[in-house]
Amino acid sequence: MHLGAFDHATAAFGLATTGGIVSSTGIAGLTLGGGLGFLTRRCGLACDNLLSADVVTADGRYLTCDAEREPEPELFWALRGGGGNCGGVTSLEYRLHPVPDVLGVLTVFPLDGDVLRGYADLIAAAPVELGALLAVALGPPVPFLPERRHDRPVAVVLSCWSGSPDRDDDVLARLQALGPVLDRQLGRMPYPVVNTFFDATLPAGLHHYWKGLFAADLTDGAIAAHLDHGAATPTLQTATLVFPIDGACHDVAADATAFAYRDARFAIGLGPSWTDPADSAAHIAWGRAYHEALLPHSMDGGHVNFAAAEDAGRVQADYRGNYARLLAAKRRYDPENLFRLNHIVVP
User: Fold this and answer.
1) In the chain, what are the domains?
2) pLDDT digits over 196-254, tens only?
3) I want to staple 153 with a disulfide (CB 3.0 to 4.6 A). Which of 94, 111, 123, 224 is the partner?
4) 0.70 surpassed by pTM
5) CA angle in degrees (0–180, nearest 5) for 289-291-294
6) Which helix (H) or strand (E) holds 130?
7) Is beta strand 130-138 parallel, antiparallel or unpaired with respect to 207-208?
8) How far is 28 from 47, CA to CA, in rounded Å?
């Protein structure tokens, strides 16, 4: 099931859970890798809201697992952040949260270091009901953005305020204070609408190359890398995304699920998207250079949902202290490595 269908079903009851930021996202793969979205600070990762799962294991068994069900609690632990290493998941049951209409805001700023520093300060001080992503991108050729900013590097803050409408003006003032606003689109809307902000720029059929990092902060060195490489963003479809993962994410112990980076404040997903396969080498080189520039200012591992095929050697760092336990689960449920087409733990 994709996120748009899930949101449509739950929003009818005024409910939602963390599930990504693009409506075409498959919720199963997103959840198994951890799962980031606009509700992360308030509700936790998608995997934190997984209550149970039905799984087909490598030996053909059909299991239902949750945190308590014996003898499979290790399988459920591994599914929450460990990716598809231990089986094929056929259904998922989620915890839902009351999320009525939200204030959705898309604010475009110049690509400027003060804006990026202000964003980090905003996240540190804001209530958890504010989900705000930072995107380093090119200004889209849309009527509401001044033409001189089209195809030029910008910083975009995409916000979802799920708190009281009485505080909408305060949220808007905090966003306004980040820097000179080039344009802003906002309104009260059903929650599923904010998960369509990127849909128009990410149609089916694009080529993608992703890299993932975690960061304890947006340091001056990291900001310099974002300004340098962001200024050379190659296509309108490309956006480097900074997700805040504090708030409810930090309320979960590092070893409670396979997702280990509970002390990170930000998860970064970067990489180009493009249409012509002849351009692949140049775009991938840009993504790799950007990633290399951020590495000295990041934690050791990255979010597995943003991992490239070449990142197999980083799996142990991606799971940190949870790697040995995940490896044991892999050996138990898939000793012959049947499920090996994703970011794998080799048994």
Assistant:
1) 3-98+322-333 (3.30.465.10), 102-306 (3.40.462.20)
2) 988 888 888 999 999 999 999 999 999 999 999 999 999 999 999 999 999 999 999 99
3) 111
4) yes
5) 110
6) strand 130-138
7) unpaired
8) 10
